[in-house]
Amino acid sequence: MPMDFLRRIERAEFPLTVERFADVNNVAVLRAAGLVEAELVEAVEGDPDTTCAIVLRITPEGHAALAGDLPLDN
């Protein structure tokens, strides 16, 4: 779940590179929601299995969601 992933990286040192497929998908969802700033990188063009994500930071909206100030589903 994207919110579970956000909780896991809450105290991470950024930039944070993630390579697991599920984590990359979580980053994509969180980025689309505006909860993190991140780059999705396709290491080998045309091969989605080599995609990674670089999380640059958790946005203020992301921190508010973590604090329970924003009503978000898990």
Shape: elongated
Unreliable parts? none
Q: Main beta sheet, described?
A: 3 strands, antiparallel
Q: On the 0-100 scale, what is the average pLDDT?
A: 89
The tally of domains stands at 1
What gyration radius follows from the Cα positions, in whole Å?
Answer: 12 Å
The number of distinct β-strands equals 3
How many H/I helices? 3
N/C terminus separation: 6 Å
User: How do the SSEs run, as a string of H and E?
Assistant: HEHEEH
Structural class: alpha+beta
Amount of helix: 25-40%
Strand order of the largest sheet: 1-3-2
Task: Please tag this protein with its features.
alpha+beta, single chain, about 70 residues, 3 helices
Describe the 3D structure:
With 74 residues, the chain is α+β, with helices and mostly antiparallel strands. It has one domain (2-66). 36% of the residues lie in helices and 24% in strands. The chain contains three helices and three strands; from the N terminus they run αβαββα. It has a three-stranded antiparallel beta sheet. A hairpin with an 8-residue loop joins strand 2 and strand 3 (51-58).
